[in-house]
Amino acid sequence: MTSDSVYEPTNTTKVAMPRLVLGVDGGGSKTAALLASLDENGQLTILGRGIGGPSNLRLAGKEQSLQSLDKAVNEALMDADVEGKDLHCAVLALAGSTSPGVKEDVSNWARKRKLSSHVEIVPDIDPVLAIGTDSKPAAALIVGTGSVAVGIDAAGNTIMRGGWGHWFGDKGSGFYLGYKALAAVAEASDEIGPETTLSELVLAALGTTDPRSILTEVSASGDTRREVAALAPIVLHAAAANDSVARRIVISAVNEAVKLVSAVSKALEFESPYPLALAGGVACRNQYFREGLISELNKLEPPPAIITLVDEPVKGCLNIAREKLNSSGLVDGMDAY
Questions:
Q1: What architecture is the 134-311 domain classified under in CATH?
Q2: Which of 35, 76, 28, 78 is nearest to 54 (CA)?
């Protein structure tokens, strides 16, 4: 791997070396990191990848989150064989980064490990918007462990809806699906709610036969939110198999997610169809949920003009890094990634 410096051959012709940029996408379940080179023409080439655990400081805690960031970043640097090299820009898109103190904690972590000469910390929805849409106005929706939507109007004004966390938010998310499933199992056990195949499926997934031990099982790891959200695929499977209780839960989740997009559209006064970027494990990796979601989104007024699946949002962090370097005058010729 070449150095980041500019060297002078014997003919005195200056040749710019590719710059190194880092993108990190951290959420409630995992952290993904990409290390890429950026040449003088604005071309990004991915050199290394890394994966860590949850890095939402607000929910996973500072210690766990910073460990996850370290793991993902270290793996990406090792994979690219650029350990010890200077990074020109690092963009960290983290769930919960708008909460007080989070940016300070992450900035201190980045400074301590000398991550890069230029570090940007942005909400996790930003790279989804950056890679999934190429015009304004536009909107983006994440439905994963949590849920959040953001929009940008023609003038560049942005607004966020959702993203409140699981205690009183995350409507329509993986956590929402798991929470509703656990409630349905509890009601069926108490014989105050309808029978559902979710009872057998959920108890089997938790490794118990006693509904009264559910709370113990989902809190055993110390990350109850993550364990509850991990039940989402079971709910989606049961709904696709026509379990009436599971179907009602999924329909409710879809409607809640659509509300977020509708709220963004109304707040920014979208008057015509707009591009929508869609991300998150629940939305991108489950066809049953996604088809229901898209069907309801198309009923909005105005509806999305085109819906783009963003299955790897961390690539949007690299786009943002490129824009940052370009705006600082360090890189010319920003071709589309």
A1: 2-Layer Sandwich (3.30)
A2: 28
